[in-house]
Structure formats: structure tokens, C-alpha cells
Design goal:
The chain has 285 residues and is of the alpha/beta class. Helix content is 24%, strand content 27%. Helix 1 runs parallel beside helix 5.
Length: 285
């Protein structure tokens, strides 16, 4: 059986079906109300399961009644209770090099920390948070990619790793070695740019795709940026041509989205907004 929720869990489900694995049940979160009409919307995994002709449940407890031999968990978003795990062994596709970045946001935390390497592992599911032993693991270079691109590669590598492990037999898991580091969920306050931080740190935050600041009291999303070699001779937050002064170095803006407007190049925004000598990003709310 299969347990997952977001879009990143869909390719693995599809690959398992294509490879001929029988999936008697898919478990995912309940439908959510979205949009102006407040209509119920299924999770991406539920939508995929229906398209593939697979039965769906929103109750983890139903996993023990379908005659499955193994549960596969990918970005499910819930801890699984002991009584369920005792009735049905499960493996989890986790997107980090465990025990570094256990928890909800391993890909984002790897980027924010400046990790050069991350990875994906097929892990035995235990009652604890990502504490189980590893059946297999692969390393992936982080590079300077945005989170969506890095996540896509991890899903591709992880899916191949999972299929290989299932075909060859899982064997005995190897205990995790090293000091655990926890990847707590990214909260909205962390996504606001603090221009007193270094250009390198802010560029990492921008790669998460949700970073924002303010300009003249209105929100400005910074969707793409890179560290500039220009000299930062201004106060943090001051715009100099295409770049913004930070606490250490200059950050060149590439793509932005002003509040209430479409995504645009930084040049187009600067041409329209015309930041003056007294203007500063991050001021006035």
C-alpha cells in the first residue's frame, strides 16, 4: 500500500504502478476546501490514485485491513502509530542524508544551511520521527539550484532507489550513524528577508521560492537573485542599480513580484518603481 500527500509523492506512486507492484490501498490526507467557491479539493496523491484506478482512504488505520505486505510512505505528513506499524511494516522515502535533517523540511533546511550534499534514503518506519534504519541511500549534489529543481531530482533518484530496493529485497536496515539534526517546518516569519544578513544567506532563502520583503510599505516577493561582486557601500536594504546592499555583500535581484502585480524582471520593477536615495527594502512593514 502507499501513503503520501503532495505532488512530489505522485511520481513514486506512478512508478510503482508502472513497475507492476500491486497497491491495494492509497492513504492520503482529507480533501481541503480551496478557492473562492470553497470547493473540496483532493490531495495530488488522491487525484493520481483515482486516475490510476486505485482505492483511496483518509484513515491510516485502514492500512492493516487490506492484506498488504509492505507500506511505502512518501511525504505523507503524519506520524504513524505503533499499532499500525506492528501490523504492517513500512518504508519511507526520506529526502536527506539521515540522521541529518530529520523532520518536515529536509530539502529546505539543507539549502538554508549551505549544505553541499544532500540525498535520499529508503528508511524503515518507526514510531519516532525519522529514526529508523536505512535499507539504501543515494547522495545528490545541492549546487545553487532552487528548491523545486533540487526536490525534483531527489524524487527521481529516490524513486529509482526504492524500486531497486524492492526488487532486490530490503534485507536488514543499517542503523543511522551521526548526530541527528532536525528540519523543522519553514514558518512564514523566516521567509521575510532580513537585509542585515549576508548576501549569501539571503540568496539561499530566495532559492526556497517564497522569500519576501517590503518596498514603500507593500510586499515584494523576491523569486530569483544571486550574489553580486559589486561593493556594498550602502546601508542594508538600499537598492543600487539592480542590486541590494546587505549586511555582507550585494545581492543582485533577478525576478520579483510586487504586491498585486504579475511576476516580472527586476529591471522592469526598478524601471517602474524608481527607487530613490531615501528608499530602502524592508522598511515600513
Amino acid at each position: 500500500m502507499y501513503l503520501g500527500t503532495p505532488q512530489m509523492a505522485v511520481p513514486t506512486l506512478e512508478a510503482l504502478v508502472t513497475a507492476g507492484f500491486e497497491i491495494p490501498l492509497v492513504v492520503t490526507r482529507v480533501d481541503k476546501r480551496r478557492g473562492r467557491g470553497n470547493d473540496l479539493t483532493p490531495s495530488p496523491v488522491k487525484a493520481a490514485a483515482i486516475r490510476l484506478g486505485l482505492p483511496v482512504s483518509h484513515r491510516v488505520e485502514d492500512a492493516v485491513h487490506v492484506g498488504a505486505e509492505l507500506g511505502v510512505v512518501v511525504a505523507f505528513g503524519q506520524l504513524i502509530k505503533r499499532q499500525v506499524l506492528e501490523a504492517l511494516p513500512m518504508v519511507n522515502l526520506h529526502f536527506s542524508l539521515l540522521p541529518r535533517w530529520r523532520g518536515a523540511a529536509p530539502v529546505e533546511r539543507a539549502i538554508l544551511a549551505g549544505d553541499q550534499l544532500t540525498g535520499v534514503g529508503v528508511m524503515r518506519v518507526e514510531e519516532g520521527l525519522d529514526t529508523g534504519g536505512l535499507y539504501s541511500q543515494a547522495v545528490v549534489v545541492v549546487g545553487e539550484r532552487p528548491v523545486a529543481e533540487l526536490r525534483d531530482e531527489l524524487v527521481i533518484v529516490g524513486t529509482a532507489l526504492l524500486l531497486g530496493s524492492l526488487r532486490q529485497g530490503l534485507g536488514a536496515p543499517i542503523p543511522q550513524l551521526g548526530e541527528p539534526v532536525y528540519a523543522r517546518k519553514i514558518d512564514s516569519a523566516e521567509l521575510q528577508i532580513d537585509w542585515t544578513r549576508s548576501a549569501v544567506e539571503i540568496a539561499r532563502l530566495v532559492r526556497l521560492g517564497m522569500a519576501w520583503t517590503t518596498f514603500r510599505g507593500r510586499r515584494l516577493k523576491v523569486l530569483a537573485a544571486r550574489v553580486s561582486s559589486a561593493d556594498a557601500a550602502q546601508s542594508p536594504g538600499v537598492v543600487v542599480q539592480h542590486a541590494v546592499a546587505t549586511g555582507d555583500g550585494m545581492l543582485q535581484l533577478v525576478t520579483v513580484q510586487p504586491e498585486g502585480k504579475a511576476v516580472m524582471t527586476a529591471q522592469a520593477w526598478i524601471n517602474g518603481a524608481r527607487p530613490g536615495p531615501g528608499d530602502q527594502l524592508g522598511g515600513g512593514g
